[in-house]
Structure formats: C-alpha cells, structure tokens
Write a structure and sequence with these properties.
Protein name: GEVED domain-containing protein
Order of helices and strands: EEEEEEEEEEEEEEEEEEEEEEEEH
Distance between the termini: 136 Å
Region (Disordered): 275-295, 318-385
Pfam family, one: GEVED
Number of helices: 1
Number of strands: 24
Strand content: 35-45%
Biased composition (Basic and acidic residues): 350-370
Shape: elongated
Domain GEVED: 263-338
Largest sheet: 7 strands, antiparallel
Number of domains: 2
Radius of gyration: 39 Å
Helix content: under 10%
Length: 385
C-alpha cells in the first residue's frame, strides 16, 4: 500500500491492521466479517479545505504480488468532524477510482453505503445535510465495493466534502479506514481429502473459475460441501476411467493464464480417502499451450470402484506440491473417477503334439542299420599261413 498525500496533507496517525479472525461482523459489509482481513486505519490532517466544497486528501494505491481478480474494498468509519465552540466542519467522505494496472478497473456496489451513490468510478453522498449526530451514511461512509478487473494494483483518491456550520472550526481532520478481501476457489471432495483454497487470479482450469464462500472470509483453507463446485476442466461425463490393466494413465487438462503456470493432479488409487504423495503427477510448463497432460504410473494394488481426482493449478510450482492448503493464485477442481477392475490375462494356447501313425519309417531305419553292420570289414582267414 502506497500513500500519496495531496498538497499539505499530513498522515498524523497510521495503523497497519493485520488479519484478525476475531473481528466483529459489520452489517454494512459483505462478507459481514470483512474487517477480519488486513487493512489500514489512518488519521489525516492539514489538508486543503474548500469551504462547502470538495478537496482531495490522499491517493491510496493497493498493490498485489500478482494480478488478482475483482478485489473487494471494505470502507468503514471514513469521514471526519471538527468543532470549535459553536463552529463546526463536517468532512463527508468521497472516493474516486483513479486507475489500475494492467486493466482499467471499475466500481460495483456489493453492500452498504447508505446515503451514498456508487458509480463506475466514484462513491459520493446522495446529498449533504446538517446534522447533530453522525453515523454510517451521515458524514461517515461504510460499505463494500468490488473493484472489477484482474489487477496488480489500483488507486483511489480519498476526498473530503466540507459542510460548514457558523464558521471555520479550525484544522481539518479525516479518518480513513480500509480493508481488502479476495475471492477464493475451494475444493469439494469429501472432507477426508483435506481442503484446498486458491485466490482468484489470471490462472485457472478449463474456461474460467467461479468464486466460492463469497459471504464469509476465512484465514484458513476450507472446502465446499461435497461435489457442489462448478468445475469445467473436465466435461462430457467426467474423466475417462482408469483401465484395470493400464500401467500409466494420461489426462489432458485445459488451463488458462500465464504459460509458466504449474499444474498437478492426484488420484486416490488405493481408495483410502486421502491423496498420498505417490499418487501425484505434475505437468511441465509449455509456452502458448492451452492444454497440459498429466501422466500417472498406475500401481498394481489399484482398488476398483469410484474414487477422487484433484487438479490444482497455480502461478508457482510450490503452491501445488501438496494436495491441500492455500495457494495465492489459480484454481482447484475435484472430480469423481472410476478405477476399472484388473483383468487376468487370457491363457496362451500352445499347439498340441501330434503322434506319428506310420510305424514303417522306424522299421526301415532299423533294417538299414542291420545291413550296414554286415558290410563292416572282416579278416580273410584263408590267407593265414
């Protein structure tokens, strides 16, 4: 987060608010526990005052480590009041969206902002009234706005609309309180497989990714109820079955986003209700490729029947080394898959040995041996003296 004060604006008190799971719900925010996220709480003074008119106070730039999709900005307790005797200045808060990278963002109202109007690029009061008391929607603004786009950064200008009573009440003051939350995609296999969650970015499986758990933020990974997510990486009846006698299994997976994004998958081959390290496959990054192939070595102890497949993609390989946990980009999909029964190989038929029916050949060989024996050399006894 970068703060750029306008003119003589001073940041006289600043707090970086870390994530706080115990933060109280706020009826003007969605999710109601939007204050559980990280954010800032600042007090600004000495900004230029335009009596009964608008003044720019500070530009706030929110930056992310990689592009995120449609971040939500939670505004609460933003505004100010200064009194001196009978004189008073109310500083009604307003926001103007200055821009973003790499896309040009727009605002969409999600919740709250009573008494305020949300347009594509502004959040301003519907009307200004003199009032004895202040609350959300009266001087102070509070609500949730979605900043539309896949963004690495966006900048807002915090503005002050002075409403003066009787005279100048002195040095101006204005509070600015902002928190951010990001949409996530969650796994939906049975609970025994563990939960995986991904922040929505420009990396996804199939044709796109839908946000889950949009009404409650969490600081730990969480899954959906079994098989309730919208998964489109594998369609038309789900993944092909794993042949029982196969030594390998290859699955083509469509991916979107940067070419260097990592892809990994797990198949519960032994059907023990969890994804083991030996059941993992990973695809190599390919430039300009919209489809990656995962190839598993199929173990011999495959248990036939229905089981689960998990696919995870992320901008970094480290995020998909395990089947569970947080990833700061990408998407997770769970699919049911069938393991076919191993079939024993058919016996090999050998040709039968044939018996010889002609016994005459054996007799002929025997007669030839006997004739040859008679022709052997014998001494002539008559010539012996």
């Amino acid at each position: 987060m970068r703060k750029t004060p306008v003119g003589g604006t001073k940041v006289v008190w600043a707090q970086v608010a870390p994530a706080d799971p115990a933060a109280l719900d706020d009826e003007f925010l969605i999710p109601a526990n939007g204050k559980a996220g990280a954010g800032i709480l600042d007090l600004y003074e000495e900004f230029e005052v335009n009596p009964n008119g608008w003044s720019d106070v500070v530009a706030l730039t929110f930056t992310f480590s990689r592009p995120v999709r449609d971040p939500r900005l939670h505004v609460y307790g933003t505004g100010g009041v200064v009194t001196e005797g009978t004189e008073r200045d109310d500083y009604w808060a307003g926001l103007r969206l200055m821009g973003g990278t790499p896309a040009t963002p727009t605002f969409s109202k999600v919740a709250g902002f009573p008494g305020y109007r949300v347009t594509d690029d502004t959040i301003v009061p519907e009307r200004f009234t003199r009032t004895r008391t202040t609350t959300c929607g009266v001087v102070y603004t509070c609500g949730t706005v979605q900043v539309n786009g896949t963004l690495r950064s966006f900048t807002i200008m915090l503005r002050a609309r002075d409403v003066r009573y009787r005279g100048d009440a002195g040095g101006p003051q204005m509070w600015g309180a902002f928190k951010l939350s990001l949409y996530e995609d969650a796994s939906d296999a049975p609970a025994s497989y563990g939960a995986a969650s991904h922040i929505l970015t420009d990396t996804y499986l199939g044709n796109g990714v839908t946000a889950d758990h949009t009404t409650v933020d969490s600081v730990t990974p969480r899954a959906l109820r079994e098989d309730t997510d919208t998964d489109d990486a594998i369609v038309a009846g789900g993944p092909p079955l794993v042949e029982g006698n196969a030594r390998t299994y290859t699955l083509a997976v469509p991916v979107g986003g940067p070419s260097e994004a990592a892809l990994a998958g797990w198949i519960d081959f032994d059907r023990n209700g969890k994804f083991d390290p030996g059941e993992r496959a990973q695809a190599s990054a390919e430039e300009e490729s919209t489809t990656r192939e995962l190839t598993w070595s199929v173990p011999r102890n495959v248990k036939p029947g229905a089981t689960w497949l998990r696919l995870r993609t992320s901008a970094t390989a480290e995020d998909v080394t395990r089947p569970t946990g947080w990833a700061d980009s990408g998407e997770v999909e769970d699919h049911q898959i069938t393991l076919a029964e191993r079939v024993a190989p058919a016996p090999v038929e050998r040709p039968a040995r044939t018996e010889r029916s002609d016994k005459g050949d054996d007799r002929d060989k025997r007669d030839r041996r006997e004739r040859n024996a008679h022709h052997m050399f014998r001494p002539n006894l008559n010539n012996l003296g």
